[in-house]
Amino acid sequence: MQFLKDITRLFYPELCVNCNNNLYDNELILCTSCNFNLPLLIINDYSNNFVTQCFYGKIPVKLGASLLAFKKENSTQQIIHDLKYKNNQEVGNFLGYLLGKQLKESTKFSNIDYIIPVPLHVKKLQQRGYNQVTTFANTIANELNTKVNTQVLKRVNKNTSQTFKNRFERFSDTNTTFEITDTNTLINKHVLLVDDVITTGATLEACCNELLKTKNITISIATMAFTEKS
What we know:
alpha/beta, Rossmann fold, five-stranded parallel beta sheet, two-stranded antiparallel ribbon, globular
């Protein structure tokens, strides 16, 4: 089996999604150097941090978490771009495992009833074929031993075409409208809303405003990355 694997790697080498160097057998998604230099965000207080403060005075967010710092042209942008536009679902698993492990170790997220990925518009989902946040959500759910709900929230408008936008602007698009499809399921529940990148927070705020139509719902937020201000 190892011989066949080595032959496959010879003709179809696995590359680091950030630097494009060949990966060794013990490396996954990132080479050792890129993995070591990941711009990880350190959060000691999940109740009061840069994520929760982003929504202060707008919507009540119980807990907030984000894994990586996002800046134009840094490794985070390249990694998430590989997931978002190249359907590299292993990136979603990789980031979901890293963040899910942190959340599990904190014990603050032990009572999450549902994880809700920010949805794509149905037409964009059909066009792209996948929601880049779903694998991320599923992996976190496995770590927290909870469920993912992709049916309770839907996007009801389609963002304008992003074809002519640069890669950084695509992550910043916040022209979104959402609709909750079922308020009964989430009554008295604690949900974790997950997305890829927080830029202004407008997309997540729009989602939360819909979810808050549910009686006695508690909302926490987790993302792959948080945009650092220049």
